[in-house]
Design a protein that fits this description.
Blueprint lengths: L1 E3 L13 E3 L3 E3 L8 E6 L4 E4 L2 E4 L6 E6 L5
Length: 71
């Protein structure tokens, strides 16, 4: 499996504001379609199921990964 994400996205979020990112697992018939989201450094935003929510002022990077060995 591989993960398709639109080119790098820069976004600005206010505290408690949310925006949604989308990642697509390829090929479409991959057996493991799970996407794992993470944010580093922690403390500036949270991410769950692609929904990024601002916590406080600062910069961070949101990453999506897929199980490249499944399917």
């Amino acid at each position: 499996s591989s993960l398709s994400i639109p080119s790098a996205v820069t976004m600005t979020l206010n505290e408690s504001e949310s925006k949604t990112l989308t990642a697509t697992v390829l090929p479409a018939n991959a057996t493991d379609r799970a996407v794992v989201w993470s944010v580093l450094p922690t403390g500036f935003a949270t991410v769950a199921n692609g929904v990024v929510t601002g916590i406080k002022a600062g910069n961070c990077t949101v990453t999506a990964t897929a199980d490249l060995e499944g399917g």
